[in-house]
Design a protein that fits this description.
240 residues; alpha/beta; 5-stranded mixed sheet; 5 helices; binds zinc ion
């Protein structure tokens, strides 16, 4: 039983889910420019430093997806990202019935929230509780660093996108369009930025998965498992 438990104990499976995007709040043009380092002259990243919960959610015996690992799952850390893109367009009448079109700014809302679960079967003063909570915190801290780096890369990706294909027009270099072309053009620009954000999101997913592979390796699990007397872990499976 001891060896079996050591082999299969899932201290934490780390999930990642995506929330539906929320539209960014419209920016008043008179608002002072934010000074966060994720802001460039045209692009603004409206982001957060994910808050690590002060204590875990202990409402479930086996948190996480309903799968074959469920009975052995002692904890779970979920880093959820959400994104939305808002382009603040300006237009102006131009000769020959055309419209000048430019973006005053483009805001990408890019946020992460972190939820941590520890099995309700562990007493709060027990060794498995303490080890599992520490294990989950290590995931949470890694997600905070990965997300901080990904914000910086996202801004660089957005700025680089200005050198690829059609750039987002600016007041200095507006697009001159027929009136009936404006909506399509704005939609295409929105799609272009969306691809940049989704590319960065894939990189972030990969970094989180790489971290999880290391931290949740059989060797890492074994080390965590050995921090407590083997019998202490049995409560997870209803043993004594
Ligand atoms: Zn884990």
């Amino acid at each position: 039983m001891r060896a079996f438990l050591a082999a299969v104990l899932i201290l934490a499976a780390c999930g990642k889910s995506h929330e539906p995007p929320k539209a960014p709040a419209p920016q008043a043009s008179a608002a002072p420019a934010p000074s966060a380092k994720e802001d460039g002259p045209l692009f603004r990243i409206d982001s957060n430093e994910p808050e690590i919960p002060a204590s875990p959610d202990r409402s479930q015996a086996h948190p996480g997806p309903d799968d074959s690992l469920k009975a052995d799952r002692a904890g779970l850390t979920v880093g959820s990202t959400s994104k939305a893109i808002g382009i603040q367009w300006r237009t102006q009448a131009a000769p020959e019935g055309k419209r000048l079109v430019w973006a005053e700014s483009a805001t990408v809302v890019y946020r992460m929230s972190i939820a941590i679960f520890v099995s309700s079967t562990f007493k709060e003063d027990s060794c498995p509780y303490r080890v599992t909570w520490e294990h989950e915190l290590s995931h949470a801290r890694a997600y905070v660093s990965i997300f901080a780096a990904s914000k910086v890369h996202l801004l660089a990706g957005l700025e680089h996108s200005q050198e690829v294909d059609t750039p987002l027009p600016t007041q200095d270099a507006p697009a001159a369009l027929q009136a009936d072309e404006v909506a399509d053009f704005e939609a295409r620009m929105g799609e272009k930025l969306k691809q940049v954000v989704e590319d960065q999101e894939r990189v972030t997913d990969t970094l989180m998965a790489d971290h999880k592979r290391d931290r949740d390796s059989p060797e890492a699990y074994r080390k965590d498992f050995e921090k407590c007397p083997a019998a202490d872990w049995l409560v997870l499976r209803g043993g004594s």
